[in-house]
Write a structure and sequence with these properties.
By secondary structure, this protein is of the alpha/beta class. Helix 1 packs across helix 13 and helix 4 packs across helix 8. It is globular.
């Protein structure tokens, strides 16, 4: 179809939509989840004791989660943000020390750092990626560095092995924020098991859930586990000698037995959820092989993503429109893409205006902080990655029709907007 005809044929310009009905919902919750909740409530009614926390359902859930990672220990908490706070608090970091953290992140993946009187140092992402890497982290390491917090965004593993190679010889603990990357693998090993601790979110939109909100903190080390338990429950003397009292000041960040009962069932669904998401992406990748305006970035060598969402590269140099227009065309055809994954917390008001405590400026403005309190973090790679990609919200509920419709919509937009001069061959390259 000639370009002008293809433009007129777009739904954006009044043509017929490829897909007129909404994409399917996930259907994450089922009768088995209801049965688990009913059983716990039936027990509460029969005994007169309301469900609490740290009971048998939560203990079983934590053990099952740790076992799914190959063994170790897990503590269930109230959210992924609570998990980041708990992990950092468990390290008992010095006040006014620096914690390096990736630029593209959820705000809850960074906010706990200054709330614990530490200074967030923002690491740019690797070129073309949403994740940071060792080349971006190494220049930020100073004698003030007390920890490194590595988010694995969108279900894609960061180069955690390379980051650990920097951190371990220096004695710097590494926390993995795997909130978006349940069951992702790097060289056959589960993300969240490389660092001192791994943090996971189980809010309703993640790969599996514990109801509305939830999270876990994982470690392979028993001493670290007891520190996590103390940090997540007001410093209670877990793992300490008899007669000890609350050992540190912290918050009540517990999950609860009702949510854990849901999580126990949901955890059994995780392998299927991830396998189906990978199958959807494999089919999309194969179907997009001949397109020039969009492509799917290849994961790191040895990585097997779990795809919380799918980032799609838009090649502006091969198109006659900008990304915003291209995405509007996709949306008009029935594909609800997100043109911009705006997730750089250090560009938000709370960070730029230093609004953490009642007195703006703290902890940066404290005389006890020996670093550069006015330091800024341009993060050109992260900005470029956001500018060059849009987000496609795939999930395990997609069937063949959803894949077929998505490919048809992308091809329709390509026909309308692709430049017709001699094509420049391109291939996916790992995000490094």
């Amino acid at each position: 179809m000639p370009g002008s005809d293809a433009l007129a044929h777009l739904a954006l310009n009044g043509g017929p939509r490829v897909r007129s009905d909404p994409l399917p919902e996930r259907g994450l919750m089922g009768p088995d989840d209801k049965a688990a909740v009913d059983a716990l409530l039936d027990e509460a009614i029969a005994t007169g004791r309301a469900p609490g926390y740290n009971g048998a359902p939560e203990e079983a859930y934590c053990q099952a989660f740790a076992a799914s990672l190959g063994g170790g220990y897990a503590d269930a908490v109230s959210s992924g943000t609570a998990g980041v706070f708990t992990a950092l608090r468990a390290l008992d970091l010095p006040a006014w020390s620096e914690v390096i953290v990736g630029a593209i992140n959820d705000p809850g993946g960074i906010m706990p750092i200054p709330l614990l009187n530490c200074i967030p140092i923002i690491a740019d992402t690797a070129p073309g990626a949403f994740n940071t890497g060792p080349e971006q982290i190494e220049p930020l390491i100073t004698p003030l560095t007390s920890a490194i917090l590595v988010p694995h965004i969108a279900g894609e593993p960061a180069d955690i092995a390379g980051i650990l190679a920097l951190a371990e010889p220096r004695g710097i603990p590494v926390i993995e924020d795997a909130s978006q990357s349940h069951a992702a693998l790097l060289h056959g090993r589960r993300i969240g098991t490389f660092g001192r601790m791994g943090v996971f979110s189980t809010m309703f939109g993640k790969h599996y859930c514990t109801g509305g909100q939830g999270g876990l903190v994982y470690t392979a080390d028993e001493a670290t586990y007891w520190a996590i338990r103390r940090a997540s429950d007001r410093g209670k003397p877990f793992g300490l000698p008899a007669g000890a009292t609350n050992a540190i000041a912290s918050l009540n960040l517990n999950l609860n037995d009702l949510a854990a009962a849901i999580g126990m069932v949901q955890l059994t669904k995780l392998p299927r959820v991830v396998a189906q998401r990978r199958a959807v992406v494999d089919a999309l990748r194969a179907g997009m092989a001949g397109l020039r305006t969009v492509s799917l970035p290849a994961p790191l060598p040895g990585a097997e993503p779990s795809y919380w969402f799918l980032r799609v590269r838009f090649h502006a140099e091969r198109a006659t429109c900008d990304k915003a227009t291209f995405c509007q065309a996709l949306q008009a055809e029935g594909l609800p893409v997100n043109p911009d994954y705006r997730a750089m917390p250090h560009t938000m008001d709370w960070f730029t205006q230093r609004r953490v405590f009642g007195t703006p400026g703290l902890p940066w403005s404290s005389a006890d902080y020996r670093g550069d309190r006015d330091r800024t973090f341009p993060c050109p790679n992260a900005r470029a990655a956001i500018a060059d990609h849009f987000v496609l919200p795939i999930h395990e509920g997609w069937a063949e029709r959803e894949v077929t419709d998505t490919l048809a919509i992308l091809a329709k937009a390509e026909a309308a907007f692709a430049r017709h001069e001699a094509a420049t061959p391109h291939c996916d390259t790992p995000d490094r």
